[in-house]
Write a structure and sequence with these properties.
heterodimer, A: about 400 residues, mainly alpha, two-stranded antiparallel ribbon, B: about 50 residues, 1 helix
Chain lengths: ~400, ~50
């Protein structure tokens, strides 16, 4: 029924099976829509956010998907600016994943601010000294760049491509993609950094506060590095997942290996700087604040184990796996390394958001715990449903993987 | 009130912040304008697809 829309030379499942596949993801979206409706109608009392937890699970999800979505700008940078030709086979899916991550994050923020109708205030009444203002500007602009990068992929659809105007527009847009990719790198560099800087400048919270260079705390640079270290790993994971579900080889192994190697080196560099930063924090920031290391880990479930997990288990180990050529060439180890890398970055964002706010900072303060409500989970998980649906629709109807037909010849 | 900021101040912080923002927006805008004009010229037959 929809065969005229499916790219030439490739095979797809029946429309009935495809619609069945979309059902659970549509269910997640419906849960998210109901939660969003309740939050907009009744207000943020539908969440467990308090004056202690003004940042909660949505911000953890936001920061995580923005870091994991860094694969889009970084792969664009490697493909169009550095000239890594093998990554042209994976750049389309990188753009789609980036688009999902950023559009999902912006949509989630729309609910998080409580009154989306006043969302434009941050642009019109810009506080130029605020890291959050910079993040808002850059994320919005970068989402526009991602949409521009997505348009030629959509216009390459078999039916749309038959329209000469669309064909020409898509081709012309594709030819100057390096300009948009470079703009995306510039915007991403600053918003990834400012997200980290936002925590590092919190002078009154010594758990997150860091010294730094000029106006940028060290967390500014660590966030950039961790994002470009985990983004390619997340891209590998998503593409491998698509390959696993479709039971097809969609991207030549060389592209995966290039990304895994780069991801490993960047993660190793990040780990060295993260350890140096942690030591600087232990011997510099904490004593200056009149506290001891264990003061931060003496209450609640958040112990030193978090630091061990973040640095050793989900930091050093995946870096070693991705750096050893024989290990990353083994499919199981490659996926394990990438998965651990992404877990480490999500854990880092969780620690800086939730643990920072949970730890008391005043003598009369007490440790406050937080668990999200079903509405908060609904909106967060809707992002996964949205992502799977966009990838599924794109894979079915768009030529996302340029080498698919070559790698999977269809028997006549 | 200008450039496009209600609380605009002629200070280095505003100039750097908005300067970089407008630089990015101008690049995006010029890129899209270029593609739009080029496509229009190709559609009306003034420019061939392989030109430029």
């Amino acid at each position: 029924m929809d065969s005229v829309l499916i790219p030439a030379g490739v095979k797809r499942c029946s429309l009935k099976l495809f619609l069945l596949w979309t059902l659970p993801w549509l269910g997640l979206l419906a849960w998210g829509a109901l939660s969003a409706f309740l939050c907009l109608w009744k207000g943020l009392n539908q969440t467990n956010m308090t004056n202690y937890f003004a940042f909660a699970v949505w911000i953890v999800f936001d920061l995580s998907v923005i870091a994991l979505g860094a694969g889009a700008f970084f792969t664009g940078f490697l493909t169009y600016i550095i000239g890594k030709k093998e990554l042209k086979d994976i750049i389309n899916i990188a753009v789609i994943i980036g688009f999902i991550c950023y559009s999902g994050a912006v949509a989630m923020l729309g609910i998080d601010i409580g009154q989306p109708i006043r969302g434009w205030f941050i642009f019109w009444h810009a506080n130029v000294h605020s890291m959050l203002t910079e993040v808002s500007f850059c994320i919005t602009c970068y989402l526009v760049v991602l949409i521009i990068e997505y348009v030629p992929i959509i216009l390459a659809n078999r039916k749309l491509d038959e329209v000469p105007d669309f064909h020409l527009f898509g081709n012309n847009l594709h030819r100057i993609m390096a300009v948009f990719a470079a703009t995306g790198v510039f915007l991403s560099f600053f918003h990834q950094g400012s997200l980290g800087g936002m925590y590092g400048v919190m002078y009154a919270r010594p758990f997150a506060f860091r010294e730094g260079f000029y106006v940028w705390p060290w967390t500014f640079f660590l966030f950039i590095l961790s994002a470009i270290a985990s983004g390619p790993s997340f891209l590998i994971l998503c593409t491998k997942l698509v390959q696993g579900i479709t039971r097809k080889k969609l991207v030549p192994e060389k592209a995966f290996q290039t990304l895994a190697k780069i991801s490993g080196w960047l993660l190793a560099s990040y780990m060295i700087l993260k350890i140096a930063d942690t030591l600087g924090w232990i011997y510099g920031v904490i004593p200056k604040a009149g506290m001891t290391f264990m003061d931060f880990f003496s209450e609640g479930p958040y112990g030193v184990w978090l630091l061990i997990c973040e640095i050793i288990i989900f930091g050093i180990i995946p870096a070693v796996i991705l750096l050893i050529p024989k290990a990353r060439q083994h499919q199981g180890w490659l996926i394990t390394g990438c998965l651990m890398n992404c877990t480490g970055i999500v854990l880092n964002r969780f620690v800086l958001t939730i643990v920072t706010l949970a730890i008391p900072v005043m003598p009369f303060d007490k440790f406050v715990s937080y668990l999200p409500t079903w509405q908060e989970w609904g909106i967060s998980l809707a992002l996964i449903g949205f992502g799977v649906l966009v990838v599924s629709l794109s894979y079915r109807y768009l030529p996302v993987f340029p080498k698919e037909a070559e790698l999977n010849p269809v028997a006549e | 009130m200008l450039p496009f900021c209600f609380e605009w101040l002629w200070g280095i912080d505003h100039i750097i912040f908005f300067g970089l923002l407008y630089l990015a927006l101008v690049i995006i805008g010029l890129g899209l304008t270029f593609v739009g004009i080029k496509t229009f010229l190709q559609v009306v037959g003034i420019l061939w697809e392989k030109d430029m």
